[in-house]
Design brief:
Shape: globular
Helix content: under 10%
Strand content: 35-45%
Number of domains: 2
CATH architecture of the largest domain: Sandwich
Number of strands: 18
Distance between the termini: 52 Å
Length: 241
């Protein structure tokens, strides 16, 4: 992936082509990949060309970012798509009609990483939540994976599992991205620590809430509209008896 340091904040989407990029591995902070940037906090750009096939069954393409530290501005084929603040949370960007199928598309990500010696006016470093790792130096850039994924417009966006250990069951709450045009089936499966998988179905008439036996891992997908892929969730609660 092409990488550009923008210490003077003079680069734009239009002028990136005039510079010579470094090659950077994603995921990974830039401080861990370039000796001269180990203490760098500021602005940097990422650029990549990618070919996108047509999504099947009326699905749409989404970009899934695991985490970008700290502010990410996403451009696709020169158009601003989204901005996300927060260095530790995943976020999703819908590409929609901006995709040019079966030919080169350009993805550009502008990253702002405030730190010692660089305090972005909109994002004061003192007000940004940090973990213990900030004691050892700045961490900036696309430091978690990025994926291109086809999804139906109505898909699972959250699977919340609340274990009930004494009763040996778990309460499952599934949230969809949009209302369904008709009733859909929900498939649940759980796996134990050995990896054995057990499919489950919610009880009839349970609506959006259902119960399942307690397990360490669970996965849900809606069918009937082929709303895939499924969404995993991990649960576990220590208890004292």
């Amino acid at each position: 992936m092409g990488f550009f340091v923008d210490s003077n904040e003079q680069l734009t989407v239009a002028t990136l082509n005039q510079g010579t990029p470094r090659s950077i591995q994603v995921p990974g902070p830039w401080q861990a990949q370039f000796d001269d940037l180990r203490a760098y906090a500021g602005v940097a750009w990422y650029r990549r060309s990618l070919v996108v096939e047509r999504a099947p069954d009326q699905q749409q393409w989404y970009l899934l970012f695991g985490a970008v530290d700290y502010v990410a501005t996403i451009y696709f084929n020169g158009e601003l798509l989204a901005e996300h603040e927060g260095g530790y949370l995943p976020f999703v960007v819908l590409l929609g009609e901006r995709v040019r199928f079966d030919e080169a598309n350009e993805l550009i990500v502008r990253v702002v990483d405030p730190g010692d010696g660089y305090d972005a006016p909109k994002y004061p470093f003192a007000e940004i939540p940090h973990g213990k790792q900030s004691w050892y130096g700045p961490i900036g850039g696309i430091w978690q994976s990025v994926q291109l994924e086809a999804r139906h417009p109505c898909h699972v966006i959250q699977l919340h599992v609340t274990p009930d250990v004494p009763d040996e069951r778990a309460h499952v709450l599934i949230q969809l991205s949009a209302p369904t045009p008709s009733n859909v089936d929900v498939r649940l499966s759980v796996s134990d620590p050995s990896g054995a998988v057990e499919p489950l179905r919610p009880p009839a008439g349970s609506g959006r809430r259902s119960s399942a036996y307690y397990a360490t891992d669970s996965r849900a997908a809606t069918v009937g509209h082929r709303l895939s892929p499924s969404l995993p969730a991990r649960s576990g609660t220590p208890t004292a008896r």
